[in-house]
Amino acid sequence: MPGEFDFLTWIASRRRDSALVRIPTGDDLAGVQIPDGELLLVGVDQVLDGVHFDSAVHTPRQIGCKAMNRNLSDCAAMACLPAAAVATVALPANAGLDFAKELYLGLEEAASRFECPIIGGDTSSWTGRLVMTVTILGRSAGIEPIRRGGARAGDSIYVSGLLGGSILGRHMTFTPRVDLARQLAGGGHLNAMIDLSDGLSRDLGHICRQSKMGAVLEADCIPIHADAVRLSRDGRSPLLHALHDGEDYELLCTGEVNHPGLTRIGRITSEPGIFLREGTSLAPLEPLAWEHRL
Predict the structure, then answer these.
(1) Architecture of domain 148-284
(2) Which pLDDT does position 1 carry in this prediction?
């Protein structure tokens, strides 16, 4: 019966050369050469069966792809280029080698889109449900990383794409906005940025809190996805879905930018608090988006 080492041998057979990887997989550690003058950025993200995906519904390749794309979206959030990644997986005891290979192919498919080699990781099996963790290494590559804490009073607030209803499928199939983020940051007019993983209402709160600023959103300007309209049959309006659903993986940024990939949805204020303007009404916006309970 195939085991862990059969899987690792198969992974090693898929290794691709990269100019950045000085020591590839096969030793206890891999080695990545970051060019002089560049900043190394590091992040990690975990996906859990029953929380971020449903292994009874989603294919292992879709799951692997999402696990990697969440990390690549974090690269987009700071306008850096992916340099390399490592991944760990705790497989259900009955998963099998074919299942493990499909997970890896999903990781590889997402990473290769951005020339991001997978340089190591770890595998195990247990009696619980599927758990995957990806650690991403990014590099600044000539562009200063855009952080959450740089928003200034008077900044316009922008979002890429359409929001809401991602649970209908887009949360598994999104494309990280790495290229768009690099274009925007290279223009020099961005002050703060984040990717929309937890939802517009909560992720804007992260920017405002770290920038020590407030914000006013214009309800009429928020771009709503058709999936949010479909979900509105549950009694919540399309706008509420766009504000709170999460896992859109679009960019939310502040500054003064003219780009066809962005929609202006509000402004940053010096007064604390986040408010939503609907017509002539201005009311506090409660962050009802996703939060893990501890």
Answers:
(1) Alpha-Beta Complex (3.90)
(2) 46
